[in-house]
DNA sequence: CTGTAGACTTGGACCA
DNA sequence: ATATTCCAAGTCTACA
């Protein structure tokens, strides 16, 4: 009997039938013999004790004529089998082999990948994971390949250049070869059939390293979701700026993420700060643009004795009532936008807009560049509690959820990761400011 | 059609 | 400590 491999599929060539086997994440094969177990030929399989290879996770037993056994073991029952004939296993529309793309080891350069990328409507990471493009790349390796190629995983695949694709193909070969050499990546419960572990997990640059410093630049590794998959990357090493003059920059991020740290660095570099929260506060002052409208909507009970709006009372109302929050926003946002538009008119000056709800309020359209200040969720919680100004539950409601943060991460041009040390954050901000300066020198 | 979400599966990590 | 909820993986299927 012959066994071949195509992509992630094993092809068992039996006398009459073709059996395709996909191990998915934890499937594995063990060789065994009758004499080592109470297994009896042709009988319904009875699992033995836990520590035996013949345990409850064996779901399929092959009996060979020489009385040897092949056990299929899969804790997650995630693996899949397909049965075909020699005539149709490569042509049957139901055969998973039909849809498979190229073997990355056979690619001389990025020509083929480039041709696929141009028609591909999703991200670079999804391109790499798509088995109809290149076979064999899983989630861990896709992240590692993007890192080594210094390409943001969220980059639209159709914007990849031929050179990007050359690089991606060569890094794919590099990563897969290295992984093969070291016996794969043993993370969580992935294990070899001989119970040994792979060693490639020790070589991982980004996967599973959220919040830990990048080995190249010290920036904490960011994590987001792309195509439904956890995705790890270095926001500094895998960064791409828009190729236009950058005069107005919008910065956003969850509460306690460190926006103010970023804005003060930009201020030092000569940017004029436009603080949306402050503008919103100002227009609620008695006699200012939003005062009367808000009063009409929410009634006099939000007023202090001196006739000013008590903002904490307003907050209490909108925290509980989503409709009220929407209404309040619809009153304030246009006013804030008008003030900002007026403030950033001077073409000779550069501005940094600090806007917590940059995308929700549609103010990103005023910006040449958008920044999201990211923080590992655990770190953010700690800082929020340490700050002690607001109960955590209330803060959680006031802020967009982590899920929304993940969506924003896909929208912004630049991510600054503030999960680790002040130095690491400073480094990212300074190098970003320098990159923008260089870019603007060329664009002028 | 395209794009997203869910189903499948289960042990471990994490939070309350 | 114990129970609970979420998460990870790769691919197919269901649905808007």
Structure description:
The chain has 444 residues and is an alpha/beta fold. The protein folds into 3 domains: 2-85, MutM-like, N-terminal (N-terminal domain of MutM-like DNA repair proteins); 104-234, Orthogonal Bundle (Helicase, Ruva Protein, domain 3); 248-443, P-loop containing nucleotide triphosphate hydrolases (Rossmann fold, 3-Layer(aba) Sandwich), CATH 3.40.50. The chain has helices at residues 111-118, 124-129, 139-148, 162-181, 259-268, 276-282, 291-298, 311-320, 322-343, 377-387, 392-398, 402-411, 422-443; strands at residues 2-6, 9-13, 17-22, 28-33, 58-63, 68-73, 80-85, 221-226, 229-234, 248-253, 272-275, 351-354, 369-374, 414-417. The strands form 4 sheets. The chain has a 5-stranded parallel beta sheet, with helices on both faces. Strands 1-2-3-7 form a 4-stranded antiparallel beta sheet, with no helix packed on it. α5 (259-268) packs across α13 and α8 crosses α9 (322-343). The longest helix has 22 residues, at 322-343. It binds a DNA duplex (16 and 16 nucleotides) through residues 8, 22, 24-26, 74-78, 80, 96, 121-122, 129, 131, 138-140, 187-190, 227-230.
User: Regions with pLDDT < 50 over 5+ consecutive residues?
Assistant: 190-194, 394-400
Number of helices: 13
CATH architecture of the largest domain: 3-Layer(aba) Sandwich
Query: Roughly what fraction of the amino acids lie in strands?
Result: 15-25%
- Total strand segments: 14
* SSE string, helices as H and strands as E: EEEEEEEHHHHEEEHEHHHHEEHHHEH
- Overall 3D shape: elongated
- Overall pLDDT score: 85
Widest beta sheet: strand line-up: 11-12-10-13-14
Main sheet properties: 5 strands, parallel
In angstroms, what is the radius of gyration? 28 Å
* Helical proportion, percent range: 25-40%
CATH homologous group name of the largest domain: P-loop containing nucleotide triphosphate hydrolases
Structural class: alpha/beta
The CATH class of the largest domain is identified as: Alpha Beta
CATH fold-type name of the largest domain: Rossmann fold
**Gap from first CA to last CA:** 68 Å
